[in-house]
Amino acid sequence: MILSSRNYHHGDLKSALLQAALTLLEEQGIAALSLRTLASKVGVSHMAPYAHFKNKSELFQSISAFGFNAMADKMEAVDPEQPAEALILAYGSEYIQFAISNAPLYRLMLSQTQVTGPQSSVKSDSTSHLSDELKAASKRPYKLLSTNFAILFPDNRDIQSLRAQGAWALVHGISSLLIDGHLVIPQGMSIKSYLLSCAMTNPMK
Q1: 35 and 56 in contact (C-beta within 8 Å)?
Q2: What is the per-residue pLDDT across 114-142, written as a single tens digit (0 to 9) for each?
Q3: What is the distance, to the nearest Å, from the Cα of residue 69 to the centroid of all Cα atoms in its chain?
Q4: Which one is predicted more confidently, 202 or 99?
Q5: What is the pTM of this model?
Q6: Half-sphere CA count of 191, side-chain side, radius 13 A
Q7: What is the C-alpha separation between 39 and 37, in angstroms, rounded?
Q8: What CATH architecture does domain 13-51 belong to?
């Protein structure tokens, strides 16, 4: 879990609102999120949150950006000295672990970016509704995968892209199916070994 219990203090309202939103999201789901409710949770006037979020859409995007950055931070925390193949597997495992450990947040993250792909151009009409913060944050996990596929296939950008997209689809699909209860990791099997077995063939070869 990434939730914290930091208390609000003057000058840190946005952070306090985000933390309150994460707690509320985890405990009651997305339907419970509103700026008025968060203001009450933090102990400020019902108008105070509007200094940081114009509406619920901006709030959702900020929460989602926080989630993508937290996910990428978890992925980056693995041992960076591993070979590219091992790093890709480690990144994928951390992605899945984050998603299933923070299921309500993960669902919100996907709902805010579902019209875009990991390689969507900032200038694309499909991303025009996204904040710069969310555009940047949502690309971080995918970039970690694509960077290592570029190491494996330095002379073929098409293969780099296809393998990175395939890995992205695999971890996203496994995460979503596990969260929805359509897949169950066998008892005694780690996420990493399960991910490797689901790949069926070595995607790095």
Answers
A1: yes
A2: 744 444 433 344 456 789 999 999 999 99
A3: 7
A4: 99
A5: 0.85
A6: 18
A7: 5
A8: Orthogonal Bundle (1.10)
